[in-house]
């Protein structure tokens, strides 16, 4: 390059008298040229590197607030049919410098042909063994203070929507952590209230009256603006389905979203042009949703119309917790109670078994922790994992299923499994052949006014007791029906568990996991 040749003195230099000022000027020019040359080399090298390994880039740091402050992030689109390139073009037509990041699980195929601009980037979440971790972290691509999550198919018209969203975000500060603008679609955006109770594996949506524009969840298509640091401080910021996942996490943090009186229109309505593609998209969305609830440990959903949806165990699946060690099921260590599907199955089994005992003339009573639950909650204790019933040993022959269970386990007409327990002289009724949630039946017999039995478990409550508690048995509300319990069951329970047991809940083995201990 010319700049280097200029280092040699020009041939006329020795002939002319050069003033001090002239030489200073010459040196300054040469130094400037050298610097320019060096910078251009450097830039070329950086550009070259970027072509080989796309790296997160920072947007221009000047201009108005929008210019420096918002990144458009597109997360949800179908590989097989989408409008992502159109959406991106829509955004950068008016603002060629606007940072846009398209986030895909895998490299889209067929390929996504995005406008070639340094501020438009496609990032892939699926790691590759030859690339650095940073490349797969979406937060590394968003350098702005705010991020706007844009669904596929949004038409950017009018163009000032983003500025308005930012202004409204600032107006809402202190009240809402997010602002949303509906995308006009066939079904209007719904403002919902979402309550997530992880301990009970439950998410409950309720409809919020529209005047209060603060919602904790939305249903439908919306453009959502929030602070970048808020988004990427979530546990799973970009899990799909995006808004479902987001609002589960934000509602747990007490965040709200304000729906603005603006709207985006759609490029195409409906978005997908064939019913086959729509079918494919619906299937994918369904499995993503089920996977999301599994990942978040949500097994029971109550929808805004009151309908329930279950993602937990059923009669056809295995019990959703494993073998119990030290009387302390795994879920207690996770800071959770019995999955609601299991409680439901236990209630169903208890009701079914009790009905059979009553009709076949077997005297029974709620025992142990089950009686405690009835006294305390009129239900199964919310962290209990089985149901215990006491029965009179002499009544066993009255029940055909119990008689048959003596000679091996049998599956009854409703799919419940009756068996003699291998652990000792008691009976067990399992919810199904696959799902081993169970009701245990403990046969007692009277001896000198005490009720006793031959197999004892190493539990404080597993002790003899005076027969007068069973004369008479009294009906108590339990799990949605009436079941029989010992009379004066408070003293019965205090005899077995100790004083004040009804008023002072505690986990089954406080030495392993206590209610007071921090999760
Ligand atoms: C991230 O979230 C935690 C709580 O979930 C909060 O304590 C912390 O301040 C947050 N960090 C930022 C940078 O917002």
Automatic annotation (TrEMBL):
Pfam families: FKRP_N, LicD
Keyword Membrane: yes
Domain FKRP stem: 62-303
CC terms in the record's Gene Ontology section: cytosol; extracellular space; Golgi membrane; nucleoplasm; rough endoplasmic reticulum; sarcolemma; skeletal muscle myofibril
GO biological process, one term: basement membrane organization
GO molecular function, one term: identical protein binding
InterPro entries: FKRP_N, LicD/FKTN/FKRP_NTP_transf, LicD_transferase
Keywords on record: Membrane, Transmembrane, Transmembrane helix
Record domain LicD/FKTN/FKRP nucleotidyltransferase: where: 360-395
Family: Belongs to the LicD transferase family.
PANTHER family recorded: FUKUTIN RELATED PROTEIN (PTHR13627), RIBITOL 5-PHOSPHATE TRANSFERASE FKRP (PTHR13627:SF31)
Protein name (Swiss-Prot/TrEMBL): Ribitol-5-phosphate transferase
Species annotation: Salvator merianae (Argentine black and white tegu)
